[in-house]
Amino acid sequence: MTMVPGRRSSTFTRLLRHGFTDPSAAERLLDLPDFSSVRSDSVLLDALGATADPDLALRGLVRLVEAEEAGERQILLDTLVTAKPLRDRLLGVLGASEALGDHLARHPRDWQALVTYEAADLHPGIAEFEGELAGADDPDALRVGYRRCLLSIAARDVCGTTDVAETAAELADLATATLRAALRIASAAAPEDAAQCRLAVVAMGKCGGHELNYVSDVDVIFVAEPADGAEESKAMQAATRLASHLMRICSDTTVEGTIWPVDANLRPEGRNGPLVRTLSSHLAYYQRWAKTWEFQALLKARPVAGDRALGEEYVEAVSPLVWQAADRENFVPDVQKMRRRVVDTIPADRVDRELKLGPGGLRDVEFAVQLLQLVHGRSDPALRSGSTLEALGALAEGGYVGRVDAVQLDDAYRFLRAMEHRIQLYRLRRTHLVPDEEPDLRRLGRSLGLRTDPIAELNQAWRRHASVVRRLHEKLFYRPLLDAVAQLAPGESRLSTKAATARLVALGYEDPAAALRHLEALSSGVSRKAAIQRTLLPVLLGWFADSADPDAGLLGFRKVSDALGKTPWYLRLLRDEGAAAENLARVLSAGRLAPDLLLRAPEAVSILGDPQGLAPRSREHLEQEVLAAVGRADDAETAVAVVRGVRRRELFRTTAADLIGSYGTEESPAEPDPGALVDRVGSAVTDLNAVTIAGALRAAVRAEWGDTLPTRFAVIGMGRFGGHELGYGSDADVLFVHEPREGVDEQEAGRAANRVVSEMRRLLQLPTADPPLLIDPDLRPEGKNGPLVRTLKSYGAYYRRWSLGWESQALLRAEPMAGDLDLGAQFVELIDPLRYPADGLGEDAVREIRRLKARMESERLPRGADPTLHTKLGRGGLSDVEWTVQLMQMRHGHEVPGLRTTRTRAALAAARAADLISEDDAQTLDEAWVLATRVRNAVMLVRGRPGDTFPSVPRELSAVGRYLGYEEGHVGDMLDDYRRVTRRARGVVEERFYGG
Q: 793 and 826 in contact (C-beta within 8 Å)?
């Protein structure tokens, strides 16, 4: 082909216009002598241009022509130009599959399998494929025959003769014929084994479901029985040899490549169990040991090869067990947990390209459909299909999923499966990753009919369909529940009350009748409010079901909605602010405390929609708000009512932040550092209580004395209050100190200080809708027998003369919290020599502290309490860790400034920095202290009342576990971990506190 130098030929331009990306190389190939008769044929160029990858198609055609014998080449090319069916099929395959191009180059006569165009060729079944493989008497011949059949399936696929579901069914039928041929070859190689047993091959997974991929493991289970007169043990050995040989025939790689791996790991006990079992052995395992996922897998069981009667007997025997699986304890959590585990195993750099297992992927659809089949297939045999698309259609037909949802999901699943097929077809490799190279994406897009801008169109369509799956796969469970109670569209199929009840029970609701009443109250009617609820509830129900107490979550949501339903912003907030609805669902279903706080003032739900709403407010900000409110109030009780309202609101903010940080959300993962969660709660609650006391103090003073009390007055925090380690259920341990103002009689000042204390305590405990704040002054000198309030001078005299060792130890946590700042600082200056003695502690003092601790352990632990699970006084619990740290503070605080802190974790870190304790020991103590503190917080959050040990009610115990990061059904692991962590801590305490 000659052309003027510097000018491109007309062929080059035509090739470019037909979609070739390397027209120069294509032009050189068409210039080959064998192509002289067709190089300018527009029919050929048009056909090449219509393929997914014209360059690849032409290269494959050239290789095929060159592989043909010289006399046959022109026949191939002439047939190609004149016969459109062959032209579309052959070039379509060559443009989509490099691997099948390689096969044709090795076996050039196989192109003739694409010439015929009879009805049987359009939709072959198992019988036709068996006929094609009938002559295969060895593994290599089987591989060649398999690829020839695969060539015809791919041709129908890329030409659009079959849709994605039909292609998947044909691939499953070809796999069935191949397994039968492989078993025939294995039996012929060992006729004595074949004579001893009846062996059935049962397909599982996608092969069993009649929806196989181009390249996929073929999952099977082998079941065998002795032939008449054969001994069972020898028959099982013979069946095992046959099954093993069958697997090798299909899986081994030879000069003709491989077919696919045969995977028998879905059998009882997986790879650790025998490869072949009798039917009775299978049933014994499933009835006693099988897990939920194994019944889910059996849903697709289908006999495909070997002894047909035995295979059908197996499926008939296990089928009732499959449809009883939804009655098993923790059924839905087990299924959802397995799905999460699958997602968690995907490497982070692949999640966005994972077509099968990633969010919005194929597995989301399959899991959702299978879960609904298992729940409702018990009572409706129409749902018992192994095919995902057939089952989805049946679910829609029966009203188990919404028709529109089913259509959208069907469309998305078909598109994603088509992508998967074309990705695998290219090199016939098992992969579910969307390629990231432009040529691969271009070929993939064109193979799916996207021709204008293949890469951009492909990415747009893929993301759109994945988004549909992500949005619908969970709502699929819940939206029909609303349709069942809302009854808005007469004539539509909908769930019966019985079916709705079954679904709610399967999803973890203990009172499905009440749940249905709540759903009806929330979503019935034609109002805008009800319409928005019908949009929100499917998603919310999913989040409730993912919690330890779905019933409480739904009930709480109804109560909040009843209280706020008429406000214009409430439903708009949940609908439009992405995080607000999920945050609310997590808070309402995690326990009693947070919902109780919210329901006392439901408008606090607005906190959940503000990106900064969950951040704790600073002490200065809160104090400014509280004191301003006190200043505006007409009397002390009104003032403190406002103060306690602020406290309740901020307690809700803190509990909500803690729960959401512990559970995590779809947008943000759970906080990985439990110590950070503990510190945030401790600091927030401490600041909040300090501000509340400051507000009550200001209100009490204003009511009787105006702006100035006759005596300077300070509140000193003690215990966890002083240590900034308060939990949700902690009292505020305090000391009160006053100092008469100049010219004021000491007795008058004392009476004023006592009246202020009494009034503060009264105001903070008045019965109202807001939680009370209990002030506990029992750590004062002389305890309950001593005066409530002392002057600085009185404290000094007492501590110099009468103070006991435990009082000095208690003062380690003393910190001014409210009132006169200068007086508080003077008190700290007074007690520092007591808590950080200049010469450290003498041995007598150390022995006394140890003796007191030992006595406390033996006398104060409640009767019947498990010492290994008591968070405060138990082995390795809070008391153990705190006394160990405090002993180091008293011994070394004078010379180590970092130890002069009221906070346990900070003091422990300072001790480690000063080499007073090893890093391992410090970490062990810190881990135990954090865990015990979180357990106490969890108990209060879940039960709504404080406790020092794990709840005994299973649902409450499960909720504590969820808060601590344990999945449903793992409370045993939680208790074991707690015992292990605290046991190690007790070992450190024995050495560091008791001296070995």
A: no
> Which own/partner pairs from 3-12 qualify as long-range (CB within 8 Å, at least 24 positions apart)?
11/39, 11/40
Residues 6+ apart with CB under 8 A from 455: 438, 441, 442, 445
Q: What is the pLDDT of residue 433?
A: 93
Q: How far apart are CA 876 and CA 898, in angstroms?
A: 24
In DSSP notation, 414-473 reads HHHHHHHHHHHHHHT----BPP-SHHHHHHHHHHTT--SSHHHHHHHHHHHHHHHHHHHH
3-class DSSP state of 378: coil
C-alpha span between 659 and 938 (Å, rounded): 9
Q: What's the CA gap between 901 and 886, in Å, rounded?
A: 10
DSSP 328: S
User: Which residue shows structure tokens 């809700």?
Assistant: 652
Q: Do 110 and 151 touch, CB atoms closer than 8 A?
A: yes
Cβ contact 424:356 at 8 Å: no
**pLDDT reported for residue 141:** 96
pLDDT digits (tens, 9 = 90+) for 229-272: 899 999 999 999 999 999 999 999 998 999 999 999 999 999 99
pLDDT for 4 equals: 46
pLDDT tens string 748-793:
999 999 999 999 999 999 998 888 999 999 999 988 889 999 999 9
What single-letter amino acid sits at 48?
L
pLDDT at position 129: 96
CA distances from 296 to 322, 326, 331, 631, 696 (A): 7, 10, 10, 65, 60
Per-residue model confidence as pLDDT tens digits over 924-975: 999 999 999 999 999 999 999 999 999 999 999 999 999 999 887 789 999 9
What is the DSSP track for 624-691? HHHHHHHHH-SSHHHHHHHHHHHHHHHHHHHHHHHHHHHH--SSSPPPS-HHHHHHHHHHHHHHHHHH
Listed range (266-275, 313-322, 443-452, 834-843) with the worst mean pLDDT: 834-843
Q: How far apart are CA 109 and CA 112, in angstroms?
A: 6
The helix (H) or strand (E) run that includes residue 522 is: helix 512-523
Q: How far apart are CA 360 and CA 351, in angstroms?
A: 11
pLDDT score of 900 more than 70: yes
- pLDDT at res. 887: 96
Q: Which two tokens stand for residue 495?
A: 């769930």
The pLDDT tens digits for 7-17 are 456 778 889 99
The amino acid occupying position 165 is A
What single letter denotes the amino acid at residue 992? R
DSSP 774: -
User: Pick the residue with more confidence: 25 or 5?
Assistant: 25
The more confidently predicted of residues 347 and 696 is: 696
**Radius of gyration of the CA atoms of the chain, in A:** 38
- Between CA 764 and CA 779 the distance in angstroms is 19
- Whole-angstrom Cα distance, residue 541 to residue 519? 10
Distance in angstroms (rounded) separating the CA atoms of residues 173 and 131:
12
What letters, b where the CB count within 10 A reaches 16 and e where it falls short, cover 144-173?
bbbbbbbbbbbbbbbbebbebbebbbbbbb
pLDDT score at 541: 87
Alpha carbon distance 767, 970 (integer Å) = 40
CA distance 88 to 813: 85
| b/e sequence 412-446, b meaning 16+ C-beta within 10 Å | bbbbbbbbbbbbbbbebeeebebeeeeeebbbbbb
